[in-house]
Amino acid sequence: MALIQSGHGSGGKLMNDMINSVIRRILGEDSIQQDDSAILDIPAGKIAFTTDSFVITPIFFPGGDIGSLAVNGTVNDLAVMGAVPKYISCALILEEGFDMDDLKRILYSMKEAADLAGVSVVTGDTKVVPRGKGDKIYINTAGIGVFKNNPARAPIETGDKIIINGSIGDHGTAVMAARTNLSFSKGLNSDCAALSNLILSVTEAFPESIKFMRDATRGGTASVLNEITEGKNFGAKLIEKDLPIKEEVAAFCDILGLDPLYTANEGKVIFIVKKEHAEKILAVIRSDTHGKDAEIIGEITAEFPGKVFIKTEIGGKRILPLQTEEQLPRIC
Fold it and tell me: I want to staple 172 with a disulfide (CB 3.0 to 4.6 A). Which of 63, 179, 201, 264 is the partner?
């Protein structure tokens, strides 16, 4: 069994052998440019640029792993701005003693995710930390996307509708179940996916109707909406009966005292859209594999400005404040 050694991050023969025989062979010799910087072909105009780091534990979980998560998370951060993702970087921080076969499995996962999203991994870096000074593997990425249209940002108004492209809380519950090996957690799977194609289909069909998009990762749906409404003269109302939450996710959260609305997703985007086009936009989202369970889950309202609240099935109203800490750390 081959293991990561300190020399794999030294800049010498071991590192270069790993870059050439493992990383470039898997991610693509044509895309990984072995130079101090990648040279990219980007059309004139605005670009979107993002960076992210991934420290999830466990690194393999139902529905994905740290490799697919790193690619999809970066792609989605670009896509929700209205950009078409094109290029990403990949910096690996490896712990001495990490299994080389696990690294290969992660790289293959990254390659598959990048191909599905239509992006190229064009540059990277590798560092090795001493045994016991890391946690197997961390991944840092940066991403670049180009705009076909204007960025998907416009003034939000009361009456605008809130749409999510599918079930809420899948990723956080799947990761927690895998981390703790709970016996009652069968059927939980992460929603880890790239949403760039889904988002592009919506923005091209309704370029003037999308007010705002945000992927609901750490902090979940409620936290995203709190960020949108904070300090504004409008609030966000969710309708409990319209929330798409899988039975197994709801049951898992009930047992552990969690709230699915604050639980992480890695394949969900919140859309704020003009109310007159909401149903048509919903139909476009539902035509995509990653949007078949999409729902209109609420609206922007003048009630409780600066707040997020939910109208319960029995007719009550409950404020959903921004939480001080995450329900579950290290989920991405």
Answer: 264
**What is the distance between the alpha carbons of residues 96 and 132, in angstroms, rounded to a whole number?**
8
SS3 at position 184: coil
pTM value?
A: 0.94
By the 8 A CB rule, do 99 and 59 touch? no
pLDDT tens digits for range 110-126: 999 999 999 999 999 99
Structure tokens at 249: 């996710």
Q: What phi, psi does 287 have (nearest 5°)?
A: -75, -10
Summarised one tens digit per residue, pLDDT across range 199-251 is 999 999 999 999 999 999 999 999 999 999 999 999 999 999 999 999 999 99
**Greatest alpha-carbon span in the chain:** 67
Q: Name all domains of the chain by residue range, CATH numbers in brackets.
A: 6-147 (3.30.1330.10), 161-319 (3.90.650.10)
Q: For the packed helices 100-117 and 66-79, what is the interaxial angle rounded to 10 degrees?
A: 30
Rounded Cα distance between 261 and 315, Å, is 18
Give the torsion through C-alpha atoms of 205, 206, 208, 213, to 10 deg: -110
For residue 332, which of 219, 196, 197 has the smallest C-alpha distance?
A: 219
Cβ 59 vs Cβ 106: under 8 Å: yes
